[in-house]
Design a protein that fits this description.
Layout (H helix, E strand, L loop, with lengths): L2 H10 L5 H11 L2 H5 L3 H6 L4 H8 L3 H12 L3 E5 L7 H4 L7 E5 L10 E5 L6 H16 L3 E4 L5 H11 L4 E4 L13 H10 L1 E4 L11 H12 L2 E4 L7 H11 L3 E4 L10 H8 L3 E2 L3 H12 L21 H8 L8 H8 L3 H13 L3 E3 L5 E3 L7
Parallel strand pairs: 3-4, 3-7, 4-5, 5-6, 7-8, 8-9
Antiparallel strand pairs: 1-2, 2-6, 10-11
Helix pairs in contact: 8-9, 11-12
Length: 372
C-alpha cells in the first residue's frame, strides 16, 4: 500500500484528530504501518472501535472514489513530512496531519501569505476596504489567504484576483463541495489561479464545527492576519487568536465607535494587535522579512446596519453612509441610483434624523435614533 492510500484511509477514520494521528505516527512511524496494524495493536494505542473499524476494514468503494479524485489533474494530498507540505503551517500549533489541495501551483503554499478575514455581513465600506487592501497587498507580492466565506473573505479573494495575483482559499468542506453556494464561480476561479485547501476529504459537507478548524489553518499558513471588520464575537477573532498562538502578526483596521462591526477590531487592538490605516502599515512591518514593494491602499470607513423602522429602499441607502463623512457621489456609486434619487432620499433621511451634513462635505450617520 502506498503512502497516499494509507493517508486517505486515516483521513476517513472517525475521531482521528491531529493529536491522535501524531501519537500513532510516534508509535508506528508511518501511515502505511498504522493501517497494517491489528485491531489489538490499535486498541492498545488508545483508539476506539469505530476508528479501528475504519482503519482495518476501510470502505473500499469510498477509498476508490477518493483515489479517483486524487488522480484528477490539479488534485493533491499532502501530509506532514510530504515535501510540499507548507513548513510554516507545520510549525504552528495543531497543524493538520494532512491537507487536500486543488490547483496546479503547489509552490504557493510556501510563499509569504497574509490572511484577510472579517464579517460575513460587512458594511459596503468594509467590503470595499478588504478588496482594496487585498489588491494592493497582492500586487506587492503577498499571497492573500482567506476562507471563501461571504463578505470580507470573498472581497479579499476578489481583490487579489483583481491584481492578477493568485489567492488561497481554505475551505470548511471537501474540495468537491463549495460553501456558500454563492461562491461556486469564485471557487473555480481561485482553483484556476491559486489554490483551494482543506483538511476534509471529498464529499464532506459544511458543518458548524468545521469552520473554527479551518480558521487555525488560515492562521498557520500565513505570516500575519488582517481583520477588516468583525463583531465582538466573530470567527475572524478565532483566526486572529490562532495567529497569536502561532507567533504570527495580527493587524486590525479601526472603525467608528458606533459601528458594531468595529468592536472586534478594537478588542484586538486593545489586546495588542497592530492598528493599521493603510496597506503601507502592514507592508512596512513585513518588508524587512519579506523584501516587499510598498503599495498605496484605499482608506477605510465604517457603517452599521440600518434601523429596522426604515423601509427597505431607505434602509439600504442608509447602509451606504458611514459614521465618517461619506460624499454624495460615493453614495450614488455604491447604491447604483441616480444623483437625483439619492439626493431626495438623503434629504428625507436627514429630516428623520438618521444622517446629518458633515463639515467636510457629504453626510455622516447619527448616533441617536429619531423619535417615533
Amino acid at each position: 500500500m502506498d503512502s497516499a492510500q494509507a493517508w486517505l484511509i486515516l483521513a476517513r477514520a472517525p475521531a482521528l484528530g491531529t493529536a491522535a494521528t501524531q501519537q500513532l505516527l510516534q508509535r508506528f512511524e508511518s501511515a502505511e504501518n498504522i493501517v497494517e496494524q491489528s485491531r489489538q495493536a490499535l486498541s492498545q494505542a488508545g483508539l476506539g472501535n469505530d476508528t479501528i473499524d475504519a482503519i482495518v476494514e476501510p470502505d473500499r468503494h469510498r477509498l476508490d472514489e477518493d483515489l479517483a479524485w486524487l488522480k484528477q489533474s490539479g488534485h493533491h494530498l499532502l501530509w506532514r513530512g510530504h515535501p510540499d507540505y507548507p513548513q510554516l503551517l507545520a510549525a504552528s500549533p495543531a497543524a493538520p496531519a494532512w491537507l487536500f489541495v486543488r490547483g496546479s501551483q503547489l509552490s504557493l503554499l510556501g510563499e509569504p501569505q497574509l490572511a484577510i478575514v472579517g464579517s460575513r455581513n460587512p458594511t459596503p465600506t468594509g467590503a470595499e476596504t478588504a478588496l482594496a487592501f487585498a489588491r494592493h497587498l497582492a500586487g506587492a507580492g503577498l499571497i492573500v489567504t482567506s476562507g471563501l466565506a461571504a463578505g470580507i473573505d470573498t472581497a479579499s479573494h476578489r481583490g487579489a484576483l483583481a491584481a492578477a495575483a493568485p489567492t488561497i482559499a481554505v475551505c470548511g468542506t471537501g474540495l468537491d463541495r463549495v460553501f456558500p453556494r454563492s461562491a461556486h464561480e469564485l471557487a473555480h476561479e481561485i482553483a484556476a489561479n491559486g489554490l483551494l485547501v482543506s483538511e476534509f476529504p471529498p464529499g464532506t459537507g459544511a458543518r458548524r464545527a468545521h469552520f473554527p478548524q479551518r480558521n487555525r489553518i488560515i492562521a498557520g499558513l500565513t505570516v500575519g492576519t488582517l481583520v477588516v471588520e468583525a463583531a465582538h464575537r466573530s470567527g475572524a477573532l478565532i483566526t486572529a487568536h490562532r495567529a497569536v498562538e502561532a507567533g504570527r502578526e495580527v493587524f486590525a483596521i479601526p472603525g467608528s465607535i458606533h459601528n458594531p462591526l468595529a468592536r472586534g477590531c478594537h478588542r484586538l487592538i486593545r489586546e495588542g494587535a497592530r492598528l493599521v490605516e493603510s496597506a503601507d502599515d502592514i507592508l512596512s512591518e513585513l518588508a524587512v522579512l519579506l523584501d516587499l514593494v510598498l503599495a498605496p491602499p484605499q482608506q477605510p470607513e465604517a457603517v452599521e446596519p440600518p434601523p429596522e423602522t426604515l423601509t427597505d429602499d431607505y434602509g439600504k441607502l442608509l447602509q451606504m453612509v458611514g459614521f465618517e463623512p461619506t460624499q454624495t457621489d460615493t453614495i450614488v456609486r455604491r447604491s447604483g441610483l441616480t444623483t437625483q434619487e439619492v439626493s431626495s432620499m438623503l434629504l428625507i433621511l436627514e429630516l428623520q434624523g438618521y444622517i446629518k451634513p458633515s463639515p467636510q462635505g457629504g453626510y455622516t450617520r447619527t448616533t441617536m435614533r429619531p423619535a417615533e
